[in-house]
Design brief:
With about 110 residues, the chain is α/β, with parallel strands linked by helices. It contains five helices and three strands, in the order E-H-H-E-H-E-H-H.
């Protein structure tokens, strides 16, 4: 099986953080016999993320995306993937309730 890791985040391209996720994922895949043939880093840009995914689809059996999955405006991965797959993102109420309950019990941490 050929796999590709796509790490998404302008902070990776700008050298603001080190791409430790790709290192971890590469080792974990090797441990289970999945070969990482390519690693791509792409910034927080819809067009470039789509292009990276299209290229990966043509050369890999498995695509692993990391980064760009948070709640901020520049975290576009989930939106781009939903669009490419023709799916609509929805809020899973039970999960949201669980998260809200966790943080309500935890309280502020400052």
């Amino acid at each position: 099986m050929k796999a590709e890791i796509i790490a998404i985040g302008t902070e990776l391209l700008m050298g603001q953080i080190v791409n430790t996720n790709a290192q971890f994922l590469s080792r974990a895949c090797a441990d289970i016999g999945v070969g990482i043939y390519f690693q791509t880093v792409v910034g927080d840009n819809v067009g470039r993320i789509k292009e990276a995914l299209r290229i990966a689809k043509g050369r890999a059996d498995l695509i692993i995306c990391t980064g760009g999955l948070g709640p901020t405006q520049d975290d576009l991965t989930k939106d781009v993937l939903a669009d490419l797959l023709g799916q609509k993102l929805v809020i899973h109420k039970a999960s949201l309730d669980k998260i809200e309950d966790f943080f309500a019990k935890r309280g502020p941490r400052w």
